[in-house]
Amino acid sequence: MDSVAMYMTVQSDGKGDEDLVVQYSPLVKRIAYHIMSRLPPSVQVDDLIQAGMIGLLEAAKNYDASQGARFETYAGIRIRGAMLDEIRRGDWAPRSVHRKAREVADTIRAIENKTGRDAKDHEVAKALDISLQEYHKTLQDANGCKLLSFEEMGITDDAIPSSLGGRGMAGPLEGVQFDDFKKNLAEAISGLPERERLVLSLYYDEDMNLREIGSIIGVSESRVSQIHSQALIRLRSRMSQWKSDI
To answer: Which pLDDT belongs to residue 52?
Structure first.
């Protein structure tokens, strides 16, 4: 029994829900395989698809078109959220990897605050008292545990308006706060070094995998992984204020 048939056995509120699940089930697989491209072999794609189908079913039941969000946008956030929850429950990434990623983010922030420019690889490595090779290995390891969500910027589902699939912040200011976050995130992305900005654009906007990106910018897949990880860590350091404010 495939994933769609499996979830059609779950009671829904009506045929409309079932139609949405059938129509958008390919979205679940697309998101699952996209996320899998940065996860270790120990994570099974079938587990992600199963979690994503639950997220899709919940999206179909709870979607309110009057909120203004397209169903695909709403469902995509719910599907990704369900998959990320499944990964977090597995907690496969060693704590040391998370700790090192935080140390890199803190070091980048300190260097950039001091110099007023982008921190360079060799500067971060020197500040961490490790070799450039060790620093790149840290980035490579960190890229495997980067869960690509608002939470990576310190923003949880509580900070995402319910119309976009989150639980929503309490109070009438949720839309204003979310707009401020998006504006600050956009500014942080536009301020990234050109190569990091390009990698993020190709990865998220064009939905390319690391190998495809490497062929375009003329570097190895592992180097793309490092650039991608450093871009996310740099964003995390530059968006750190949101983590404490929200």
So the answer is: 93
